[in-house]
Specification:
With 215 residues, this protein is of the alpha/beta class. The chain has a single domain (4-214), classed as P-loop containing nucleotide triphosphate hydrolases (Rossmann fold, 3-Layer(aba) Sandwich). The chain is built from seven helices and ten strands. It has helices at 43-50, 73-82, 99-109, 116-121, 137-150, 167-184, 195-198, and strands spanning 4-14, 18-28, 32-36, 58-63, 66-67, 84-87, 155-159, 187-191, 203-208, 211-214. It has a six-stranded mixed β-sheet, sandwiched between helices. The protein has a four-stranded antiparallel β-sheet with strand order 2-1-4-5, with no helix packed on it. A hairpin with a 3-residue loop joins strand 1 (4-14) and strand 2 (18-28). The longest helix is centred in the C-terminal third of the chain and has 18 residues, at 167-184. It binds adenosine-5'-diphosphate (ADP) and magnesium ion. Residues 15-16, 19, 37, 39-45 line the site of adenosine-5'-diphosphate.
């Protein structure tokens, strides 16, 4: 039996309008799950709820056996630092610093080291000495993905990680993420509007009419 890394039950949340109602969701080790849906359907909000950043109006999120929204801030910080790999749309790279320095900060904080093979596979190894501000959007995006994976997270939460990449580079990034999960016995939840990318995952769900439906 594989281990359950995330178990969300009975999740409901409303902002200006009800986004979801009584959603159940589970993620196992080695699993990649895609969530697709129209803009405004609440995909990003759901990912934030699963990853400790937004407490839902109702329901519980158990992550690595811990009931997320009952934890103290320092316990949450520990989980975020060591166990979660957050790839959100805005990547917070330090623009004035070199690519390599951005990676070093992450590995230092997580007591890990930089994986040169990973940089090769993402085709960013040659960019390490350049300042972030000198790199293209797509290059920056791959640096930020390398930074997240360098922390060796147990669960990856990715919100449109291939959003501003061309098809070929997007495929390359997906391959790297899926390989990472396999090798490190990790798991991933991927939010995307690209059904082709979704199909590369083990399971795909559509967020529609306040519910998640597998397709
Ligand atoms: N922090 C927030 N406060 C208020 N409304 C929000 C907040 N975050 C998202 N929303 C609203 O919730 C809805 C769903 O947003 P979002 O989860 O970003 O959808 P998606 O990622 O599917 O496009 C939108 O109408 C958005 O304006
Ligand atoms: Mg979104």
């Amino acid at each position: 039996m594989s281990k359950t890394l995330l178990n969300a039950t009975n999740i409901s949340h409303t902002f200006d309008y009800p986004l979801f109602s009584k959603i159940d969701f589970a993620l196992q080790e080695q699993e990649s799950i895609a969530i697709v849906g129209r803009s405004g359907s609440g995909k990003s909000t759901l990912l934030h709820i699963f990853s400790s950043f937004i407490q839902p109006n109702e329901g519980t999120v158990k992550l690595l056996e811990k009931n997320l929204y009952t934890l103290k801030e320092n316990e949450l910080e520990k989980i975020r630092r060591y166990d979660l790999g957050i790839i959100f749309q805005a990547h917070y790279l330090f623009k004035g610093m070199k690519a390599i320095e951005n990676l070093e900060i992450a590995t230092l904080l997580a007591n890990e080291s930089i994986d040169t093979k990973l940089l090769e596979r993402l085709e960013i190894k040659e960019l390490m000495e350049q300042k972030i501000g000198e790199l293209s959007g797509g290059q920056q995006q791959r640096i930020s993905i390398a930074r997240v994976l360098s922390k060796k997270p147990k669960i990856i939460f990715a919100d449109e990680p291939t959003g501003n990449l061309d098809k070929e580079t997007a495929k390359l990034v997906m391959d790297v993420l899926l390989k990472y999960i396999e090798v490190h016995n990790a798991a991933m939840i991927l939010v995307t509007h690209d059904e082709e990318m979704a199909r590369l995952c083990n399971k795909s769900f559509r967020l529609e009419n306040q519910a998640l439906k597998e397709f």
